[in-house]
């Protein structure tokens, strides 16, 4: 019983530690960027590049939000990557420059998004008027102050790469159940003190929804051609910058942009199974370890409570009840802090169980060698010895 008490005490410390870590980060605020951040007295031209493949449902709102920006020198470009739903026409009507890529087959060894962005930026790399490029996903909505504040912060910090985590928008039942668990996993596993430490190259992370780069540095690392066959092209691009000696900056930007990544369970499941195993470095041992942590820290207290009540074991029932109350108190605080629907915190164990399923299925699908996204089937892992792409493909 002593060992069990010790284990249950460890669960309590885990949740208290998570709450303290979040509280400390919010109090210090050094990696937060909001609309109250300072703005540089002058900003160079910024080109926003939005890759879009069948994004008719979201592209107009994305472009209109960009055009409401207070950035003084802004150009918005949408790259229509073979859409069949009128995405390009809608983007043009909203005020964006639209470049059409056609629906030609992907070159061997390329993923869809890197190939689209290489083509979308080819002329920008030789344009003397363009110094900075922002890569933005089509399902992102920016605050009017977002671009000027992010651009000013990158210049003030003298970094060539800036990314951030925005507010996660959720509409359907399964989004509200699963997304907080997945988002919490990503944030908890990537402490921004380490991510923003130039001496900790192994901690590199980025969010492809919002990536701001200085053009000369982007060209020097090979652009998105450097991550042409990388499922996690955003993280891969950040690593390419760090490998070239650049300091990156990753910030909390929930007041500056929001994103609804998926709209239903099918989208959510295929989206995360594409990414999660890659995020674990394609290592099964990490998946096993993380599933063990989720089962122990997130789900075991409920089993202890049920067993204690069923067996009439007062001490176990008390431990289980106390841990369940602690879990829900921390979850409620976090949901309030991040503007999430409080009642869905009551489904914390369901979200954790679904996350375990996602991790297992992501491992299974990736180890079979293929993942599917946006109507395209990709090999799951990037060949480690793949040769660099031809200079012509990078626009050099």
In brief:
This protein is 48% helix and 14% strand. The protein has 396 residues and is α/β, with parallel strands linked by helices.
Distance between the termini: 67 Å
Q: Tell me the series of helices and strands, N- to C-terminal.
A: HEHEHEHEEHEEHHEHHEEHHHHEE
**Average residue-wise pLDDT:** 89
- CATH architecture annotation name of the domain at 32-171 and 190-263: Alpha-Beta Complex
CATH homologous superfamily assignment of the domain at 32-171 and 190-263: Spore Coat Polysaccharide Biosynthesis Protein SpsA, Chain A
- Silhouette: globular
Fraction in beta strands: 5-15%
Low-confidence stretches: 382-396
CATH class category of the domain at 32-171 and 190-263:
Alpha Beta
Q: What name does the CATH topology of the domain at 32-171 and 190-263 carry?
A: Spore Coat Polysaccharide Biosynthesis Protein SpsA, Chain A
Structural class: alpha/beta
The biggest beta sheet, please? 7 strands, mixed
The number of distinct β-strands equals: 12
Please give the order of strands in the largest beta sheet: 3-2-1-4-8-6-9
**Helix segment tally:** 13
């Amino acid at each position: 019983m002593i060992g069990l008490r010790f284990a249950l005490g460890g669960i309590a410390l885990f949740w208290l530690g998570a709450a303290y870590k979040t509280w400390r980060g919010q109090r210090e605020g050094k990696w937060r960027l909001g609309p109250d951040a300072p703005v540089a007295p002058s900003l160079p031209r910024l080109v926003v590049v939005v890759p879009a493949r069948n994004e008719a449902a979201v592209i107009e709102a994305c472009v209109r939000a960009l055009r409401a920006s207070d950035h003084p020198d802004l150009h918005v470009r949408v790259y229509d990557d073979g859409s069949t739903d009128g995405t390009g026409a809608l983007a043009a009507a909203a005020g964006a420059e639209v470049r059409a890529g056609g629906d030609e087959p992907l070159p061997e060894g390329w993923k869809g998004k890197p190939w689209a962005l290489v083509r979308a930026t080819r002329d920008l790399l030789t344009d003397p008027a363009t110094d900075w490029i922002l890569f933005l996903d089509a399902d992102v909505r920016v605050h009017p102050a977002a671009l000027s504040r992010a651009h000013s912060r990158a210049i003030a910090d003298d970094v060539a790469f800036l990314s951030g985590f925005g507010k996660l928008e959720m509409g359907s039942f399964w989004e509200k159940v699963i997304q907080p668990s997945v988002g919490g996993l990503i944030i908890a596993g990537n402490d921004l003190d380490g991510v923003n430490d130039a001496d900790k190259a192994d901690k590199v992370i980025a969010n492809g929804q919002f990536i701001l780069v200085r053009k000369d540095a982007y060209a020097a690392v090979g652009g998105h051609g450097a991550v042409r066959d990388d499922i996690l092209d955003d993280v891969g691009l950040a690593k390419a910058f760090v490998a070239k000696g650049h300091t990156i900056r990753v910030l909390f930007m929930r007041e500056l942009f929001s994103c609804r990544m998926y709209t239903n369970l099918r989208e959510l499941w295929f989206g995360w199974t594409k990414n999660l195993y890659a995020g674990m470095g394609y290592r099964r041992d990490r998946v096993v370890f993380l599933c063990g942590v989720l089962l122990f820290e997130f789900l075991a207290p409920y089993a202890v409570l049920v067993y204690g009540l069923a067996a009439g074991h007062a001490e176990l029932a008390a431990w289980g009840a106390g841990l369940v109350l602690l879990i829900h108190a921390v979850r409620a605080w976090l949901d309030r802090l991040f503007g999430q629907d409080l009642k869905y915190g009551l489904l914390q164990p369901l979200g954790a169980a679904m996350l375990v399923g996602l991790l297992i299925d992501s491992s299974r699908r990736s180890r079979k060698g293929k993942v599917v996204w946006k109507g395209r089937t990709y090999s799951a892992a990037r060949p480690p010895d793949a040769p660099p792409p031809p200079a012509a493909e990078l626009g050099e």
